[in-house]
Design a protein that fits this description.
This protein is mainly alpha-helical. 89% of the residues lie in helices and 0% in strands. Helix 1 packs across helix 3. The longest helix is centred in the first third of the chain and has 49 residues. Keywords: Signal.
Length: 99
């Protein structure tokens, strides 16, 4: 009976850690997406107002997003995991981008 409880607690702990990890990964991806929208808006306004576009910030941010996205694709390889991750990203984006 004790071995059963230990196994059950171990499984629950792993599930909680993996869920919180996915949650924080989704939050980070959402933050990056919101930042992308802000950079795009700022550059669009800059282009309209004075013809300036900050291509360096766009490129740097794009590289950051690409690296993180690649890490997430490696981490969440199954289609089920990726669907959960993407759903969390959408949810987090809706929360974070409003700010």
């Amino acid at each position: 009976m004790m071995k059963y409880k230990t196994t059950l607690y171990t499984i629950l702990a792993v599930m909680l850690v993996s869920c919180s990890s996915m949650e924080s990964d989704a939050e980070r991806m959402a933050e990056l997406q919101c930042e992308s929208m802000r950079i795009t808006m700022d550059n669009t306004l800059g282009a309209i107002e004075n013809g300036n576009i900050d291509t360096k910030s766009i490129e740097e941010h794009g590289e950051k997003v690409q690296k993180f996205a690649e890490k997430m694709m490696e981490k969440y390889q199954s289609s089920e995991e990726m669907q959960k991750f993407q759903a969390l990203v959408v949810k987090k984006s809706m929360e974070i981008c409003r700010e």
